[in-house]
C-alpha cells in the first residue's frame, strides 16, 4: 500500500542569498532575504504563507522572532532543533501539515552569520552544554566527536588518510562547476593529506567551511504544485532517526542513524539506492560522506573508502554526490540541512548549468545533526516518478 505522504507535497520555490561574508547583516535579515527569494521564485508573497518552519542555534524563541520579523501569523509553526538536520526534518513536518490540510503554503527558512560572528568573536551555542558525561573534558566540539568516528572507521575497516582526502577533492571538483561555491580553486589528494592537522586524523580540508548564508524553500500540495512558475519537485519519501546526543552514547561509531532513516525513506518512496540519480549529503567532515554512503545502502559497510578513491562520487562518477560542492567547498553556515534540499531540487529542475546531472529524476538529500546524532533522509522526484 502506497504511503499517504508519497508524492502528496512538492517544493515549488527555492531561495538563496550570497555565500561567504555578509558584513553588516543580522542572521534574521539574511533569513528574510532568502525567504523573499524563495517566495518570489514560487510567484508568492508572505501573505500566502500559513505554515512556517525554522530553527536556529543562537535564539531560544527563534520561530516567534521570525514570524514577527516577517510579519506572518501562520496556522502551523515548528522550530524543533535536532541540529543541522533540522531543516530536512522541517520538510517532514511540513509535508504532514500539508497532507492533513493544516496549512497550504509552508515556508522553511534559515539564516546565519556564522563567519561574521567568528570574526567578531561572538560566541555561539556550546555543544557540550548539559552533557553530563562529557562537559568536564572541555573537548573541542564538534570536531573531536567526528574525528573519533573517523579514527574508528580507519581502525575497523582499513579506511586510509588518502581515501578521506578523495572525499574533499571530489567535493572541490563539483564546487569548481558551481559559480556560487566559496572554494573553487583546484585541490589535490596530496594537498588535503598534507595540510595543517586540525584534529587527528582531520586536516584543514577535511573540515567544513564557516559561512554567512541564508536559504529557504516553499512547499505546497501536489494538487496545487502544477500551478507555479517552475516544475514541481515532489517529496517521495522521508525518514527521521536519532541515536544519541553526545558521541559517548553513540551505539557504534561507524554506524549512524541514517541506517534507520534511509530504509524508512526508501520504503515510503518505493525505491532503492540504485534508483537514485544524485545524492546530497551533509558533509560537515569528510567521514560523513563515507558513513552515509554505507549507511544509506550505496555500498556495503567498510567499502566507502575504496569506492570514493575510485572516483565514483566525483564528476563523471557512477554516483554524483554533493554536486554543489557540499559543506566542504560550497557553503556551511552553521546548519547545512537546507542546502542539501535546495541542491536536490535544483538538480531535478534541470537548472544547475555545468554541474547538471543529465536526466536526473530522483535525488536523495540526507541531513545530519549534532555529532552524528540525528539523521533525516528525504527522496525527491520529478513528475515522471509519481
Brief characterization of the structure:
With 386 residues, the chain is an alpha/beta fold. It has 13 helices and eleven strands.
Topology record:
Elements: E1 9-16, H1 27-42, E2 51-54, H2 62-70, E3 76-78, H3 86-99, E4 106-113, H4 114-119, H5 143-157, H6 161-175, H7 189-193, E5 197-199, E6 202-203, E7 212-221, H8 222-225, E8 233-242, H9 258-269, E9 278-281, H10 286-295, H11 304-309, H12 326-329, H13 337-349, E10 362-369, E11 374-381
Parallel strand pairs: 2-3, 2-4, 9-10
Antiparallel strand pairs: 1-7, 1-8, 4-7, 5-6, 8-11, 10-11
Helix pairs in contact: 6-10
How many strands appear in the DSSP assignment?
11
Q: Helices and strands, in N-to-C order? A: EHEHEHEHHHHEEEHEHEHHHHEE
Q: What is the spatial order of strands in the main beta sheet?
A: 3-2-4-7-1-8-11-10-9
Separation of termini? 14 Å
Strand content: 15-25%
Question: What best-fitting shape do the alpha-carbon axes yield?
Answer: globular
Rounded mean pLDDT is 95
Helical percentage: 25-40%
Catalogue the unreliable spans.
Answer: none
Write down the Rg.
19 Å
Query: Number of helical runs?
Result: 13
Q: How would you classify the helix and strand content by structural class?
A: alpha/beta
Described by strand count, sense and barrel closure, the largest sheet is: 9 strands, mixed
Amino acid at each position: 500500500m502506497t504511503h499517504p505522504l508519497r508524492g502528496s507535497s512538492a517544493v515549488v520555490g527555492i531561495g538563496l542569498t550570497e555565500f561567504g561574508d555578509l558584513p553588516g547583516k543580522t542572521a534574521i535579515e539574511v533569513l528574510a532575504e532568502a525567504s523573499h527569494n524563495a517566495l518570489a521564485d514560487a510567484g508568492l508573497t508572505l501573505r500566502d504563507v500559513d505554515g512556517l518552519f525554522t530553527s536556529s542555534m543562537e535564539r531560544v524563541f527563534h520561530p516567534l522572532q521570525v514570524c514577527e520579523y516577517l510579519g506572518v501569523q501562520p496556522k502551523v509553526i515548528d522550530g524543533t532543533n535536532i541540529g543541522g538536520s533540522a531543516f530536512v526534518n522541517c520538510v517532514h513536518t511540513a509535508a504532514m501539515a500539508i497532507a492533513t490540510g493544516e496549512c497550504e503554503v509552508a515556508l522553511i527558512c534559515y539564516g546565519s552569520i556564522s563567519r561574521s560572528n567568528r570574526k567578531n568573536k561572538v560566541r555561539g551555542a556550546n555543544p557540550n552544554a548539559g552533557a553530563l558525561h562529557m562537559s568536564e573534558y572541555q573537548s573541542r566540539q564538534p570536531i573531536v566527536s567526528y574525528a573519533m568516528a573517523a579514527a574508528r572507521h580507519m581502525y575497523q575497516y582499513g579506511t586510509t588518510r588518502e581515501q578521506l582526502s578523495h572525499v574533499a577533492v571530489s567535493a572541490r571538483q563539483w564546487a569548481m562547476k558551481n559559480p556560487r561555491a566559496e572554494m573553487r580553486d583546484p585541490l589535490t589528494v596530496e594537498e588535503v593529506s598534507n595540510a595543517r592537522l586540525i584534529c587527528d586524523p582531520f586536516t584543514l580540508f577535511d573540515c567544513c567551511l564557516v559561512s554567512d548564508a541564508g536559504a529557504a524553500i516553499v512547499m505546497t500540495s501536489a494538487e496545487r504544485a502544477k500551478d507555479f512558475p517552475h516544475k514541481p519537485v515532489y517529496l517521495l519519501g522521508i525518514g527521521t532517526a536519532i541515536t544519541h546526543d553526545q558521541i559517548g552514547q553513540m551505539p557504534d561509531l561507524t554506524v549512524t542513524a541514517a541506517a534507520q532513516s534511509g530504509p524508512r525513506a526508501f520504503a515510503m518512496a518505493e525505491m532503492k539506492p540504485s534508483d537514485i540519480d544524485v545524492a546530497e549529503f551533509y558533509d560537515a567532515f569528510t567521514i560523513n560522506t563515507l558513513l552515509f554512503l554505507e549507511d544509506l545502502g550505496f555500498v556495503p559497510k567498510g567499502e566507502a573508502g575504496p569506492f570514493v578513491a575510485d572516483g565514483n562520487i566525483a564528476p563523471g562518477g557512477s554516483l554524483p554526490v554533493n554536486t554543489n560542492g557540499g559543506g566542504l567547498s560550497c557553503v556551511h553556515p552553521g546548519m547545512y540541512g537546507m542546502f542539501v534540499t535546495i541542491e536536490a531540487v535544483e538538480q531535478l529542475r534541470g537548472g544547475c548549468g555545468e554541474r547538471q546531472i543529465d536526466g536526473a529524476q530522483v535525488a536523495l538529500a540526507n541531513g545530519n545533526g549534532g555529532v552524528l546524532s540525528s539523521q533525516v533522509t528525504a527522496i525527491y522526484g520529478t513528475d515522471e516518478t509519481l
